[in-house]
Structure formats: structure tokens, C-alpha cells
Design goal:
globular, 273 residues, 10 helices, mainly alpha
């Protein structure tokens, strides 16, 4: 396993340790997802939990693992782009695991996802600590779509936050309890919204962290939209219902707003290697 630093010297740490971190997250995510699929009746006793979590276990295998694998291969090639994408891959796993911890009764299975949350929360801080953020900003700021990306991240952060707050407020006003499976998703949305908004503001204000964090945030948001589309298709197949093409079109349209600046950002970072 490679131990050298990136060729442009933006990273001062050991790449082998970063690769081991990705392997740990991928193995634990895969193991928990396989357990969820094989012991769904014991872990998800109600239909609402099956719809919310068993299908998500499959999406973790179909989308989550490739999200991590792509970053692993880039980092193995000593690419700075891989290091900038890794926090986004961890945010993707972090977001999904929050739903398991807050959206169902706590048990050993939830504890496994709690480990993923803690590791994926620590990982980005560890990576950014070892990156020369000022040098990265100096290299990328003139080539990345900073303003476009900043407004997209800020907009989606605001949208997700008010959607989650609105759902909680509506339940209080109507004295209606939110299903436990939905509570986890709303908590995850609120955490995600804060991170997207903060990253967008940093990009718009040309902060040191902004240029380094923007690519990962766009990656996480884009892959979450891709996962949602896959989730709609899988749920339709499990329930033997028609594929909701209108819903998929709406999600794809919203996702493209993230995906377009993500691709532009990614290309700019790759060219600056």
C-alpha cells in the first residue's frame, strides 16, 4: 500500500493510514448492510422500518460502497482530488448512519452505525488537519466555480434546514407524532443542512477551508440525490408498484443543480494536480 505523499505536497500525512480508514468504513458499512438485509425481520419489525431501512441497506451496497471505492482508488494514486473527495464520501456515510441511530430503537446494530458516525465525523477533521489549506486555496480559487458552487451549497443547506424544521413544527402544531423512522432522516437533514450552508458561505467568502471543503460537500450532495433515485426504484420493485417516474424526474432535476457544479469543480481540481 502506498505511503508516499501527494506529488504536489499539499498533504503532509501518510496515505496508507487514510486508505486503512476508508477500508474500515467500507467493511463496517458493508457488514451492517448485509446484516440488515439478512435479518430484516428481527431488526425492522414494522413495515415502516422495512421501507425506510431495509431498502437503504441495499442502497448502501449499491451506492455507498462505490462512493468510497472511487475515492480509495484516487488516493491510492496519490491524487489530491481523492483527498478532497474523501470528506464528502464520509459525509454520505455519516448522513445515512444518523438515520439508523435516531430512527429506530437503540441496539447493537445501532451501535455499529454509531461507530460509523464517530469515525466519519473524525475523519474529515483528521484529513483537513494534514492538508495545506492555504496552498490549496491559492491553487484552486481561480479555476473552480467558487461562486456557483457556494450559492448551490448555501441554497440546498437552507432548503433542507427549513424542510426539517417545518416538519417538526407541523407535528407540534397538529399534535401529531412523527414516525420514528422519519425522525432519523429529519435529524440527518438538519445536520447536513448546517454543513452545506457553512461550506457554501466559506466558498462565497473565499475562506481558506472553502476551496478544500467545497468539492466533498458537492460530492456528498450529488451522491445522496443519486441514492434517493435508487431508493425510489428499489422501493417500487419491493412493493411491486409502478416506478414513480415523476418523483424521479423531480429528484433528478434537483440533483443536477448539485451535479453540474460538482463535475466542473472536479475537472478543475483534476487539471490542477
Amino acid at each position: 500500500m502506498a505511503t508516499k505523499n501527494t506529488g504536489n505536497h499539499f498533504f503532509s500525512g501518510n496515505l496508507a493510514s487514510i486508505q486503512l480508514l476508508i477500508i474500515f468504513v467500507a467493511v463496517l458499512l458493508a457488514g451492517l448492510s448485509i446484516i440488515g438485509l439478512n435479518w430484516s425481520e428481527q431488526l425492522y419489525p414494522a413495515e415502516e422500518f422495512i421501507q425506510a431501512f431495509m431498502t437503504n441497506d441495499l442502497i448502501n451496497l449499491l451506492i455507498g460502497l462505490p462512493v468510497l471505492a472511487a475515492v480509495f482508488l484516487l488516493i491510492r494514486g496519490s491524487k489530491l482530488t481523492g483527498l478532497l473527495l474523501l470528506p464528502g464520501a464520509m459525509l454520505y456515510v455519516f448522513y445515512n448512519s444518523i438515520a439508523y441511530v435516531f430512527g429506530r430503537r437503540f441496539d447493537l446494530f445501532s451501535a455499529g452505525h454509531l461507530v460509523l458516525i464517530l469515525v466519519c465525523a473524525f475523519g474529515p477533521f483528521w484529513i483537513f488537519y494534514q492538508l495545506d489549506l492555504r496552498a490549496i486555496r491559492g491553487r484552486l480559487l481561480e479555476v473552480i466555480p467558487a461562486k456557483f458552487s457556494g450559492w448551490v451549497l448555501t441554497g440546498f443547506g437552507t432548503l433542507f434546514f427549513f424542510r426539517a424544521v417545518g416538519m417538526f413544527a407541523s407535528s407540534l402544531i397538529q399534535s401529531r407524532a412523527i414516525p420514528l423512522s422519519e425522525v432519523g432522516v429529519l435529524v440527518a437533514d438538519m445536520v447536513l443542512s448546517v454543513l452545506l450552508f457553512a461550506g457554501g458561505v466559506m466558498l462565497l467568502r473565499n475562506r481558506v477551508m472553502g476551496a478544500a471543503a467545497g468539492l466533498g460537500l458537492l460530492y456528498a450532495a450529488s451522491m445522496l440525490f443519486a441514492g434517493l433515485i435508487a431508493l425510489l426504484v428499489v422501493q417500487a420493485a419491493i412493493n411491486q408498484t409502478a416506478i414513480p417516474f415523476v418523483d424521479i424526474l423531480v429528484v433528478a432535476s434537483m440533483g443536477s443543480v448539485c451535479f453540474i457544479p460538482f463535475v466542473r469543480y472536479l475537472r478543475a481540481c483534476a487539471k490542477s494536480e
